[in-house]
Design goal:
2 helices, Jelly Rolls, single chain, 8-stranded mixed beta sheet, 6-stranded antiparallel beta sheet, 14 strands, 45% strand, mainly beta
């Protein structure tokens, strides 16, 4: 799946993929129906899959953005090694399942979550290229600044080339590598990243926008493969 941003100069994008991209961004630009907002709590639970809930349709304030050009993720809430989680399987496809939010990034700069990759992307296509830009697990972050301008970046599980802590750019769209590689497949990891630091590194800006969407995004459509990943206990932590 091509990174979710505007048209990137110099990168060839198939017409169908471009249409899907514009449809996603247009839908995301609509006012959220019931966004998650902050109170005074030190930790905000963004995605909690215990107890299970309906995924089709998802609850108010949640969204599952699919693309007519490719199969969507197969989603289910399951128990994995004693942990209640969202299971995401792709078969030559991908989609985005997330929570609409309206939360100040400066107040809640830290994102924490648990994830587990069971079936990785095994393609030999270079993951630094648009043609190889598939990952078994991503978290997509969409933000809006004070002028209404949209920003976005992704947190990814790398395939072969990137170490945790690396940054990957496709054109001008940034990805932060939180985990990855074959050696780390097949077990739960508890991760924590500073979204404000990633935002400033990927955008080159020093403002503090609002977080408008936190979404799980798994894809295998460019490389034509299959992936399986699990996500649990996604939360924002106050400074």
């Amino acid at each position: 799946m091509k990174s979710l941003t505007g048209i990137i100069p110099g990168i060839r994008i198939l017409q169908a993929a471009a249409i899907a991209l514009f449809a996603f961004l247009a839908a995301c630009s609509e006012e959220p129906s019931d966004p998650l907002r902050a109170g005074s709590e030190p930790v905000i639970s963004v995605m909690d899959f215990s107890p299970p809930f309906s995924l089709d349709p998802p609850p108010l304030g949640w969204t599952h953005r699919t693309f007519w050009t490719r199969p969507a993720m197969e989603l289910s809430i399951v128990e994995k090694d004693g942990q209640q989680a969202l299971r995401c399987e792709t078969n030559n496809g991908g989609s985005i399942f997330g929570r609409q939010t309206d939360i100040d990034l400066g107040t809640y700069p830290t994102l924490a979550w648990d994830w587990y990759v069971e079936v990785p992307i095994t393609s030999s296509i270079d993951e630094r290229t648009p043609e190889g830009d598939d990952h078994p697990a991503r978290i997509f972050i969409r933000l809006i600044d004070g002028n209404g301008e949209e920003q976005a970046f992704e947190i990814i599980w790398s395939n072969r080339l990137f170490q945790p802590g690396d940054y990957k750019f496709i054109g001008n769209f940034g990805h932060y590598v939180a985990n990855g590689l074959e050696a780390n497949i097949g077990r739960w990891y508890r991760q924590e990243v500073n979204l404000l630091d990633i935002y400033r590194r990927t955008s080159g800006r020093d403002d503090t926008p609002a977080i408008k969407l936190i979404a799980i995004f798994c894809d295998s459509d460019d490389t034509g493969g299959r992936s399986v990943a699990y996500f649990s206990d996604v939360r924002l932590i106050a400074e």
